[in-house]
Write a structure and sequence with these properties.
CATH architecture of the largest domain: Roll
Helix content: 10-25%
Number of strands: 8
Number of helices: 4
Strand order of the largest sheet: 1-4-3-2
Number of domains: 2
Order of helices and strands: EHEEEHEHEEEH
Radius of gyration: 15 Å
Shape: globular
Structural class: alpha/beta
CATH topology of the largest domain: 2,3-Dihydroxybiphenyl 1,2-Dioxygenase, domain 1
C-alpha cells in the first residue's frame, strides 16, 4: 500500500490552489475548474470542488470544516520560508518552533482554515529520518 494523496474539498478551487502555489512554489496541475493537484516527489495535495463530493457520496465532505488533520510539507529552511510567507498567509498559528521530536515547525491556516505545517528536521535523529 502507498499513500499517494490527500484531498481538500473547497468551495473555491482556484483560490485555494493559488494559495498553495504561492505558499509552496509548486505549480498546480488543474483538471478543469473543479480539481487541482500540487505534486511532490513523495505525494500529492489534491484540491477538489464541493461539486465533486456527490461523485463519492452526497454530503461525505464539507469545505472549511477540518479541525483534526494537519497538512505537512518538508522544507529546507523553515525560518527562511516563514519570512517568505508574509503577505501570503493571513493566519499564523505558531511561528517557527523546535518541537520535542526534532523538527522546527511553522504552523498556519490556509484560506479554508486547514492547519498547515512547514517543517525542517533539526536534530540528528529527525535529519536521519527525513534524509533524501
Amino acid at each position: 500500500m502507498n499513500l499517494v494523496s490527500v484531498r481538500i474539498i473547497t468551495d473555491d478551487v482556484a483560490r485555494l490552489a493559488g494559495f498553495y502555489e504561492r505558499a509552496t512554489g509548486i505549480p498546480a496541475v488543474r483538471a478543469g475548474e473543479d480539481f487541482a493537484e500540487l505534486r511532490t516527489a513523495s505525494g500529492t495535495l489534491a484540491i477538489g470542488s464541493t461539486r465533486t463530493v456527490p461523485l463519492f457520496a452526497p454530503g461525505a465532505a464539507r469545505p472549511a470544516a477540518n479541525r483534526s488533520a494537519v497538512i505537512e510539507f518538508l522544507v529546507d529552511d523553515v525560518d527562511l520560508v516563514h519570512g517568505n510567507l508574509t503577505g501570503i498567509v493571513a493566519d499564523f498559528v505558531n511561528g517557527p518552533t523546535t518541537m520535542p521530536w526534532g523538527n522546527r515547525s511553522l504552523l498556519f491556516r490556509d484560506p479554508d482554515g486547514n492547519l498547515v505545517n512547514f517543517f525542517t528536521p533539526v536534530t540528528p535523529a529527525a535529519v536521519a529520518k527525513f534524509a533524501r
